[in-house]
Amino acid sequence: MKGTVNYELRGDIAVLEVDNPPVNPLSSGVRVGLCDQFDKANNDENVRGIVLKGAGNAFIAGADISEFGQKMEGPDLHTALKNIEYSEKPVVAAINGPALGGGLETALCCNYRIATEKSIVGLPEVNLGLLPGAGGTQRLPRIVGPSQALKIMLSGVPVPAKKALDQGILDSISTGDLVEDAISFLHKKLDETTEHPKVRDLNEKLVEARGNENVMAEAKALASKSRKGQFAPGQIIKCVEAAIEEDDFDAGMKKESDLFLECLLHPQREAMIHIFFGERTAGKILDVPKDTETQKIGSAGVVGSGTMGGGIAMNFANAGIPVIVLDQDEKNLERGIGVIEKNYQMMVDRGRLSQEMKDGVMSLITPSLNYEDLGDCDIVVEAVYENLELKQEIFKKLDDVVKGDAILASNTSGLDIDAISSVTERPDKVVGTHFFSPANIMRLLEIVRGEKTSKETLATIMKLGKVIKKAAVMSLNAPGFIGNRMLYGYTHQANMLLLEGALPNQVDTALESFGMNMGPFRMFDLVGLDLGWRARKLAKLETPLTNKIADALCEQERFGQKNGKGFYNYSDGSRAPNPAPENEEIYVKVAEENGFTRRDISDEEIVDRCILGLVNEGAKILEEGVAQRSSDMDIVYINGYGFPIWRGGPMFYANSIGLDKVLEKINKFAEKDEDFWKPADLLVAMANNGGKFADAPTDDLKKEKLAFKQEVKY
Ligand code: 3HC
User: Fold this and answer.
1) Ligand 1 pocket member 280 (CB < 6 A)
2) From the CA of 61, how far away is ligand 1's center (Å)?
3) 125 is catalytic
4) CATH number of the domain located at residue range(s) 4-265 in this protein
5) Which residues contact 114 (CB under 8 A, 6 or more apart)?
6) pLDDT tens track for 110-128
7) What is the pLDDT of residues 478-511, one digit of tens each?
């Protein structure tokens, strides 16, 4: 059994410590320990009260997520928590770090809660496709009121200690020795009273909310806006409804248990837990040992003050890392810093940042026109536009002026990192960092491993990814890396469907109903149709079949959102797309010119072709070792390309419908387009032996293909 609970007697107080490194989840051994040690303390006549804390830097990170869907060992969580709630001796939760999910629910069963200043509390179960199933939906509304509780549970965002104190979740904050403070707190209460409060007995805030329809209406609006397509939010709302309507606490608990079970059995739960672990696994590089030494990143530089450079600089400043933003042009630099300032101001205006915090982050950002100023930076990220010669020139300069052990990173979305590192004397310190736009908001960070990038550099950059709160995924240095290469399969199919008879609105609606954040044609309009068209004109290149319609639209000066017309029409600078029936003539004409007979296409075919286009390319990427594992591609697609988290990412989705079925569909599509739909060898192998992408022997594949990929040039 995993985990334990330690017992220590300090005078007349028993200090129980949940010990299950690194973050003390409530695994089977902890549940046994809670039952046994609470019994022990209650049976010891020398004990007057109990303090419950976590070992190390966390209080309790919740239920053990790896146990969901497995056979349960030991007592269930409800049994363990009953022992706390019905303890004969008063209990203080001494919250020494994150108290999340079942962790906060445990603390809510204690009579009192005291925390360190840096602790956080929250109920993030919704991020796992679950609801707080150990009384959280019934107890939290009793403290903070249903409306606030719903906000906490539906967002899943933890509450910092100070705010939790204001909201009444905590009774006190300790600024000294937490356990000593908790013991003193308990002694005071023992001297004052024999009646120690239980959250389950508080009813005032629920009675107040009874009959107030706004509470539920607001929660439903919040869930449909921020958690589209997800199952758990509706269940959470029903639980709180029950808390308000039922007079009896235990009846509310019964409702919560029933609805929790439904979440547990729902396919979204497995998909979202796959993403929870996938994100943590992505940080591990197969041939880089866990104990690899990392460099300290205490200062940073960014070359280029455009949209990307500014966003990247904000990431460093947000993490408390001073950053120098360099541009060669004074006006650009001024404008760039102005944009950063405006972004922060917007956060202040929306109440997401205090003025004091804004001043703090802005003070960490220093503009510069001089390369010499970057000399002492621990890392410099180049973020100029995509031009290999320009990037090489900058890297040569950086190599000269920046201290020898600093890391030099290129924010490229597709250039050859080896070609960039080759101009430096430190190719081992060169790495690609592909941020997604807007870089201060998007969570995805593709880390591109060059042939000579050292293990120390990789370990450092993966750690930095975590510090700046990104979902970092490593890709080998190969065309398109992971994300854009997979995207090709998706957009190619969307454009083919348009030639074959579908309309942009139909394609977008089908894919948005599947759960994609934005359909491909809305995305093309947002990016601008003219970029490729202009580049092709300039280079006198022929238009590929799949771009023929977009180029024809550009010839009619339909460039996308930027000039109010593209695949859609946009009125008065609005981003809302309106169908553009006038384009249909162009679609028909281009289709005919290229030998297509347009036909009715079902939504099912649209979704299958676009999504399986992604999946097949993903299988090839895995086979070549460009990605380390299939879950890395799921993390890329969810965090960078708007794939619905509740489907677990494209590769998980393919596993869930069955790789044999996927192959069958691909083979059928191949009857019409053999070149595009050549199934990946890995997919064929996995489908034929009933496997899943997650079982792919990545180690072997990687070694074999690493050499192959190094030969690829751009
Ligand atoms: N169960 C099992 N393992 C967990 C876990 C949990 N609740 N929380 C974290 N871990 C594991 C991680 O997988 C990771 O394992 P690894 O080292 O093998 O990769 C390790 O603990 C460390 O986790 P992080 O890398 O995330 O550590 P951080 O220090 O960055 O973050 C944290 C700590 C903020 C506590 C973060 O881990 C976290 O948010 N955990 C999940 C919290 C959560 O969602 N709780 C709800 C669980 S469901 C529940 O409680 C149901 C209940 O209502 C019945």
Assistant:
1) yes
2) 5
3) yes
4) 3.90.226.10
5) 92, 93, 94, 95, 170, 171, 172, 173, 174, 178, 181, 182, 185
6) 999 999 999 999 999 999 9
7) 999 999 999 999 999 999 999 999 999 999 999 9
